[in-house]
Amino acid sequence: MARFAAIGLDHRHVYDMTEGLLAAGATCAGYNPDTSDPRVLAGFRKRFPHVPEAPTEALLDDRSIDFIVLSAVPRDRADLAIAAMHRGKDVMSDKPGVVALAQLDAVRAATEATGRLWSVCVGRVASPSLQEAIRVVRSGELGRLVQVVSLAPHRLNRALRPDWFFDRAAYGGIIADIGVHAIDTFLALADAEQATIESATVGAFGTAPEGFEDFCEFTLSTPSVRGYCRADWFTPDGLPDWGDGRLFLVGTEGTLELRKNLDIEGRPGSNHMFVANRAATRHVACESLPVTYYRDFLDAVRTRDFSTLPQAPVFAATRMALQAQATAKRFVAERGP
Amino acid sequence: MARFAAIGLDHRHVYDMTEGLLAAGATCAGYNPDTSDPRVLAGFRKRFPHVPEAPTEALLDDRSIDFIVLSAVPRDRADLAIAAMHRGKDVMSDKPGVVALAQLDAVRAATEATGRLWSVCVGRVASPSLQEAIRVVRSGELGRLVQVVSLAPHRLNRALRPDWFFDRAAYGGIIADIGVHAIDTFLALADAEQATIESATVGAFGTAPEGFEDFCEFTLSTPSVRGYCRADWFTPDGLPDWGDGRLFLVGTEGTLELRKNLDIEGRPGSNHMFVANRAATRHVACESLPVTYYRDFLDAVRTRDFSTLPQAPVFAATRMALQAQATAKRFVAERGP
Prior knowledge:
Chain A is built from eleven helices and 14 strands. By secondary structure, chain A is an alpha/beta fold.
């Protein structure tokens, strides 16, 4: 049975990854308690009280450990991933996997030199409704895919955020950090290895500290499909979820909507899909559909066959996000008197 | 009581305008039976059997008629509107009011020379949920407005469309024709007289005839608010309405969604509003809220006070739509083997 260590307890996403891996049958063999955010560490200990702590170096040197799970400060993830790969370990990284193109190149070189798996846990792999949407598109029910719109509001949760969350050099910027999900999803839906970012804007609408990137939008395309994404930090306090994430697909013969987080003032639960095709409309409850990502990851670690978790799209989406971030126009909203 | 004539029975929109005006107390004094589409004419006669027919010239010369309602082929609307204004009549025009900037300039000159009202019946003025959304934004409940997203699918209804519908010179192009709604709505929500079109794309995804503009998208902004619109002709056959039109508002303190046409697989009826603010979420059924446009128009005709129907936004939105149409990048989708 695969054994892993959790390194970099800087973001709560480590809970989801650890829980997903434990549920898929892996064993968490240790964690390093160094953190930028003691609340994340306390939450980890509370959720996983039987996991022993150990220094990072000891975990990386432990030959009984097959892979590491990374949720460090984004700026530090590439170095940790590279170190782990060079010591014979695969990597499951929180997103963003890197915050700079040079880091991405270094990670790619490490995967090539070591033959190790570097998997970034983006929304697509962990969302049952996104997985179902991909299946519907592949089935041809929507005809040829025309466009993908992603609306991705996130709750700021200021009181829970460590300092690095507001430091652009540390988290990489809003497109690199949360826009990357939509790029990855677009590539999957368009069944493309690459796409062109046609325009990108990063916005600052007054969220402190001054200039904080609280908004982004971008358009992208392949030769046959167009895409638009907005991501932001403006989930209202009164919404009973961290964000009302939506996905809208237009095809020549049908349309599809996901309400990924919740059906506002509607049905209970998450992961709702709405399809309209040539004959009818339907709602599909996707919340309890199986997510195979963690099992696929463990299979890939064991068999060294990475075909269910191809790395090219991960690198492509990350590269596109970093390029969009670097070239985005900056929009600083005027505020009234 | 105000009397009007219906001229140019080329699009079914004339039914809605006539019904709205009759319900508001006006009298339809006549119509010209010349049409490019005998089905539209037959439908008008069936709905309004007591309205007499007459030649256009006779209707324009009839001094008992206060205004005309125009749903001619879009290319012909400007000339008819100008002729009517110069003969002392106000105008309620189907959208698009014009298909070229030179036409728009000529209409503006006519309004200035004659003091007549030229009102274009865009979605904003006739939609109870849009009117309610504008009230919510003005109330401050959403904080400062950050962004407006409009998704506007339309049913192609090929079998019902006359030839001019597919002739770009006659209908003006997809942004001028149906994108104009979103521009007008954006200006109203942003409380702005002008906005900048930042990027615009017109797409052809294979709808016959070859090259037909079945898709458009554009981004726009004021100094404080951003906007994105997609409009298309891809409403699936199985959807029980002509299009699942949506509007998404993001504010610094709240968000708002409109499902203008229907709540797919949800509540009955149209004009659903969903608000999330600092404290809670709520659904508001807007379908039966009063729409004041037709009454406001009749008041303006009678009192010559146009303040409830200011013309500047109509000209601004139309100009922006024409400019976006003229400068849009063209995207012709590749189709697989």
